[in-house]
Write a structure and sequence with these properties.
Elements: E1 2-9, H1 14-23, E2 28-32, H2 38-43, H3 45-63, H4 78-89, H5 91-99, E3 105-109, E4 111-116, E5 119-123, E6 133-140, E7 144-146, H6 154-157, H7 162-165, E8 177-181, H8 185-196, E9 200-205, H9 216-228, E10 232-235, E11 237-245, E12 248-255, E13 261-266, E14 268-271, E15 275-277, H10 279-282, E16 310-312, H11 323-338, E17 352-355, E18 361-365, H12 368-374, E19 378-384, H13 389-393, E20 405-410, E21 416-422, H14 426-437, E22 442-444, E23 460-462, H15 467-471, H16 480-484, E24 491-493
Parallel strand pairs: 1-2, 1-6, 2-3, 6-16, 8-9, 8-14, 9-10
Antiparallel strand pairs: 4-5, 5-6, 7-15, 11-12, 12-13, 17-18, 18-21, 19-20, 19-24, 20-21, 22-23
Helix pairs in contact: 1-11, 3-4, 3-8
Length: 494
């Protein structure tokens, strides 16, 4: 029986641990059941953004009417767009090839299944199993897969999920009509992409708000802009059945409050109802590794599972499913495996994310309701794009549905506990807050202001506060003023 020093399941962020293990002279096994490179490269972050960017350009051109410019309707070269997308996805071939001749590494193509603690075999696409092998250590970075809700007739009717969209069901041209089941991040991005390319899009969301992890006012702003862009948004609705309708498809949806139903005819159905853990495919129950009620592998602050010498990170532990978070965890896990006397712990209080829809959304830290649950009082400030010179120059006016904003939350010590943005360049603008939230300096204010929000606060200021922004000059005119000047609008809330 083959025995490895370490077995790594998953070739996304898991490649980081593989590299570290090889550098430490360990014998390694790598298991991958799909394209090498993980979700981000092959069916997530990268290929989707290649579709998002031209959709952004189309919407920016349409918005340009507000500043005195009008462009002819764009001619979409779908072939070139998809060629660029597939070029990125096809990088998985180079990754696989580069791993095939690495000394000290055995690569298994297929799904790993634990047979007992620290032992597994791998089932290939034909259903055949490898010989059983053992590992002294295991790192589980096997990710997640699309969750498909139990909708009557959906399987027979046919549908698309992210795996098949970036696979054999990728359309030869944009669909004429599309029903998206799910109004979360994935659904919002696809709605933006295809509506910009001329597809008639309907979003079906069971919750009363789209992107329900965001602040309520951000969700409402997104929904208004979707409607203005010709997208039908059905909130408080669930898909109950699907069937074929000639050459088209039909989805029946039900109002969760009234029980009323209606049918929507479309060319295609995209299911974007979230993801589920891949832990069940690995048969982790044979190891003693504990999972949550929803199947996510339980990990502590050191990325350790309930079984010593088995770690898990990335989507499979259910904690913020973003590639940058998986990369962050990989670094921590590597340290804890190869430098166990100086363990590092993972901090999830400042995880940033962005939704690349239109308008763009970004978020880090708590929502207002979460902050109020955690603190007796907080500071809350909002600043709109239209309130700064650059925002007005870009065509954003007070009262317009597309007038985005920054919302900043801080505790009683000025420490930033949450930041939220909807509007152009949100993913860039949020980063300034993320850097501040991660600072660890301690300093003293030279003086206390007499007539503003700093007055009741101790002159000793700890890291993670908005004080550096308060003292800094902001380039004028720039969108940096949207984030920098939000501090002047902050008020106490309890």
């Amino acid at each position: 029986m083959k025995k490895y020093d370490i077995v790594i399941i998953g070739s996304g962020a898991g490649l980081s641990t593989l590299s570290a293990a090889l550098q430490n002279g360990m014998s390694c096994a790598l298991i991958e059941n799909s394209k090498f490179g993980g979700t981000c490269l092959t069916r997530g972050c990268l290929p989707s953004k290649i579709l998002v960017h031209p959709a952004d350009v189309i919407r920016e051109a349409q918005h340009a009417k507000k500043v005195g410019l009008e462009f002819v309707e764009p001619k979409v070269d779908w072939g070139l767009i998809t060629e660029r997308m597939w070029h990125t996805i096809d990088e998985h071939k180079g990754i696989e090839q580069s791993l095939s001749n690495v000394q000290g590494l055995t690569v298994y193509k297929g799904t790993g299944e634990f047979t007992r603690p620290f032992a597994m075999h791998v089932k290939d696409k034909n259903g055949d199993y490898s010989e059983e092998f053992e590992g002294a250590k295991f790192v589980i970075a096997a990710g997640a897969r699309s969750f498909v809700p139990p909708i009557e007739g959906l399987k027979e009717t046919g549908y698309v999920i992210s795996e098949s969209f970036f696979g054999d069901k990728f359309p030869k041209k944009p669909w004429k009509s599309l029903v998206i089941i799910g109004g979360g991040a994935i659904g919002a991005e696809f709605a933006h992409i295809f509506s910009a390319f001329g597809t008639k899009v309907t979003v079906v969301e069971m919750q009363p708000h789209m992107v329900s992890l965001e602040e309520e006012e951000i969700s409402e702003t997104l929904a208004k802009n979707f409607v203005n862009n010709g997208i039908d948004v059905l909130l408080n609705h669930k898909a109950v059945s699907a069937q074929k309708s000639g050459n088209l498809k039909q989805v029946t949806v039900e109002d969760v409050n009234t029980g009323e139903t209606k049918s929507i005819v479309c060319e295609e159905i995209l299911v974007a109802s979230g993801v589920r853990s891949n832990a069940d495919l690995l048969k982790v129950e044979n190891t003693g590794v504990k999972t949550s009620a929803r199947g996510w592998i339980a990990t502590n602050e050191f990325l350790e599972t309930s079984v010593q010498n088995i770690w898990a990170y990335g989507d499979i532990n259910g904690k913020f499913q973003f590639r940058h978070k998986a990369n962050y965890e990989a670094e921590i896990c590597n340290n804890n495996i190869f430098n166990p006397d100086e363990k590092r712990d993972a901090d999830y209080t400042k995880v940033p994310w962005a939704i690349f829809t239109n308008p763009q959304i970004a978020h880090a830290g708590m929502t207002e309701s979460q902050a109020l649950d955690a603190h007796d009082q907080i500071l809350v400030g909002t600043n709109r794009y239209s309130s700064v010179a650059k925002g007005f120059a870009m065509g954003y006016a007070k009262g317009d549905d597309d007038d985005g904003f920054v919302k900043l939350l801080a505790d009683e010590h000025m420490k930033i506990v949450g930041a939220h943005i909807i509007g152009p360049r949100a993913a860039i603008l949020i980063q300034a807050f993320v850097y501040l939230m991660n600072t660890e300096f301690v300093c003293k204010l030279k003086h206390v202001h007499d007539d503003d929000i700093l007055d009741p606060i101790s002159p000793r200021v700890e890291g993670g506060t908005f004080d550096p922004m308060y003292k800094s000059m902001v380039i004028h005119p720039s969108l940096g003023e949207v984030t920098g000047w939000v501090i002047g609008n902050m008020e106490w809330r309890e």
